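Sequence in, structure out.
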Amino acid sequence: MKKETSIWINLYNTLFVISSMYEDLQHLESSVFEVLDELESSIADGLRQKSLNFYRENNWIDEDQEKELQKFHQFLDGIDAKYWNEYDFDNSEDWILARAWAKSIIQKLDIKMNGWNSTGEIVIEE
């Protein structure tokens, strides 16, 4: 199975958004798309255990990568709700750590991303 399923795309979206600065994502905002709401949804879908199991079953990640994604998910879940806003996304210590961690995971998974195109679809190079 190719990694083009919506489950894998949710992981890409999650890692890409977290690894970016909010100001770099503002061009994506619209009346139907709010970056932080979308991020919360992507985290729920892309990093839940059922999704991680799916990645493992398809040999898209190994056991160590699964464990790291689980820890990353726990870390994100632990970020206080008061920091889920535009200012703190770029400036709070937790989000700065999450951004660095997401970039590290992107490298470990050998994900090459160009970001989103003008229609809001993520552009992925494999």
